[in-house]
């Protein structure tokens, strides 16, 4: 759809959504570049021809405090920081800035001890309990003097995880294979999935390539793995081989979450979106198996994506959906992956929504969400997203379906208190478009209740006005809010929430 500079905000948002929906899954998904995974690629020197460019890129990502990663999420910073130090260490004599970067990074890690206690929260990065001990070993072998003591609880969790992995004997496309570089040994070709990589993880794939370098009979698998890393580099749009995302491909994840955003915003039936959305819906419905659905057709099914797909498709899959969703139920709660050791607030919120779309109640996960509400009304500490604004908005939507008005009201009051003077929302140092869209979405849900609508109306309008002038989604530090091995941004997903919020903000509140 063509738009002119004089087109209305509604037309511009609609044109953006149409283009976005039409390109869902293209290139395996659009994902921000990862410091940790890129450092791992450099560590194993997979692309010697791009070595200097990768080093320069890593140096550019170092923060003013000498660490890597988003400063407002401190426990997500140790892994990319230590990986960068270990990867850059061999080049410290060649480039003075590399030596300074490593020395600063080590000093930063010494100050990080205050963020690690005797117990672990649920929102630590994916596989950190496996990856950090392996990196600490590498740092020790290099004589870097990194203190292990702050990570004792993490190391103990890693030992439990390794015991579970040893019993499961993970195969290609399994959740455990995603963190293969933290527990793997022999480079079996059976770990390579149809994407050409190991566990949809550039870091795991780079480690597998290194482990297989002297093994006979693996030329074909090694060529596929290197090609995988080249294609994964393309998903970041940086244009340098070896600068890779933290997870790829994410075709189904991207498709599921964008269509879910349109569902909760009541946009799937929009007369000017149906022609691009319906083919995607049909394709997604065909991809939903009795076992569920994962981030791609080559990766294991998970409870969170399965829940969002069922909530999105509703009556299209209702007769078979309940049995599929129940595969992820454990004691009335819902898991993301088998053998997980930490629950997810948002996975249970999405399961509630999925059950509601099929006419079912979910008292146990609802009770869990009610118990996890903070005294100030927020929900914090989800394992898949670092922003409490995302977590709180998703839980508000779920509890609205269950009729828990008092808890929803306290959550909305938390959102109202957190709104910036300019109308935006952000869990970090500045408001972001995606987080503001999440808050706008939650406030919009208040229209179902007269008291809540009156309370939320003014803030909703101010948030929409902020989005009108601040709706860009980039790969800046504050945009990296989803939790993988490090924080990342699935750009099309976040952009869908923003454009959808802009589109529904155009009619009057009462419509």
UniProtKB/TrEMBL annotation:
InterPro entries given in the database record: SQ_cyclase_C, Terpene_synthase-like, Terpenoid_cyclase/PrenylTrfase
Highest taxon, organism lineage: Bacteria
SUPFAM superfamilies named in the record: Terpenoid cyclases/Protein prenyltransferases
Squalene cyclase C-terminal domain mapped to chain residues: 349-472
One Pfam assignment: SQHop_cyclase_C
The protein, known as: Prenyltransferase/squalene oxidase repeat-containing protein
Annotated source species: Sorangium atrum
Origin organism lineage: Bacteria, Pseudomonadati, Myxococcota, Polyangia, Polyangiales
